Amino acid sequence: MPTNEAASVSVKAPNPKPSLLKRMTDLVGVENLSLIIALIIMVALITTQTEYFFSPRNLLNIGQNMAVVGLIAVGMTLVIVSQGLDISVGSIAGCASVICAIIVTQMGTVAGGVAGGIAIGLVLGLVNAAIISHLKVNPVVATLATFSAFRGIAFLIAPGGRPVGVLDQGLAYLGSGRVMAFGDFPGIPVAFIILVIVALMGHFIMRYTVFGRSIYSMGGNPAAARLAGINLTRMRFYIYAISGALSGLAGVIVTARTSSGQPASGTQGLELEAITAVFLGGALLAGGKGTVFGTMLAVLLLATLSNGMNLLGIPTFYQLVAKGLLLVLAVAIGQWRLARSEKQQSK
Questions:
Q1: How far apart, in whole angstroms, are the C-alpha atoms of residue 19 and residue 96?
Q2: What DSSP designation does 314 have?
């Protein structure tokens, strides 16, 4: 006789809906999400002490103050991801600032001054690449040497080693000009718009081009990158040239904002802030990791920190201490993440 057998049917349970935190982490990454949370906490603390923070003028001032460090940090992201480091960027900006002021003063051409500042930055970046690639000098040692040498050059080309005054409305517009101003809205700073354009270009290059993927390859595993046909020397020249050119553009913005070519004041300490921003943004000292988006979040965090401390009347030297501690913390966290990743891969 036929027998009836009960068929067992297994029903797959629906996948649980991911939490908001998980979705945010997938969208921006854990490092960037940490920066966003830190920024929100910082803003909340500042606003409990001063209502002026959220005024349109103050928020736009933060954007304007991001420009110089942000431009340098975009180039520094490329350098650090490629397993390099450039300590000379502040000195390059100083040289570019003086060159820009001299050209505008003596030749009366803003376009020439801007081009001259960017060009001297590019050339000095190539000098760094040549020392590192052809003389086989460690990037830290090489750019530490050029940090001093380029700063000396800035003082040499500045008459009497003093700031070079320049009064030109066209140049000043790059540093302090605003667009789309209406009513009580003061307008978006031109310098901030320049930063946004450069950052978007940097993000696109790093994420969507062969050049960007090559930077990650040479930083993550130089030997494998070489075997894959990537010319590391040529790449290094491109990377340091871009970093130098952006440092030169930052120097031009300094000249435009201060109406003077600054061999030192206005450009000192830029290297520390840029390096801090890149590491806070998720880059590793060992190279191969980091994003322009993360770097820009970190630049915003640092600019907000400085702005908040200024609003609260906290002395400048406390700001320097805070930024130094942030750099140590960022590098330490990066090294811890790297060690944990290597440990997991070895299992």
A1: 49
A2: -
Segment 57-93, tens digit of pLDDT: 899 999 999 999 999 999 999 999 999 999 999 999 9
Contact 290, 196 (CB under 8 A): no
What is d(CA 140, CA 160) in angstroms, rounded to the nearest whole number? Answer: 30
> Cα(first)–Cα(last) distance of the chain, in Å?
57
Task: Tell me the β-bridge partners of 260.
Answer: 165
- Average pLDDT on 5-33 reads 58
Helix axes 232-258, 169-176, angle to 10 degrees: 110
The angle formed by the CA atoms of residues 314, 262 and 152, to the nearest 5 degrees, is 110
Is pLDDT above 80 for 144? yes
Q: 90 exposed, middle or buried (CB, 10 Å; 0-12, 13-18, 19+)?
A: buried
> CB under 8 Å to 329, separation ≥6 — which residues?
none
**Residue 192: pLDDT over 50:** yes
Domains of the chain, first to last:
54-331 (1.10.3470)
3 state DSSP class of 292 = helix
CB atoms within 10 A of CB 213: 14
Per the structure block, which two tokens stand in for 112? Answer: 């020439």
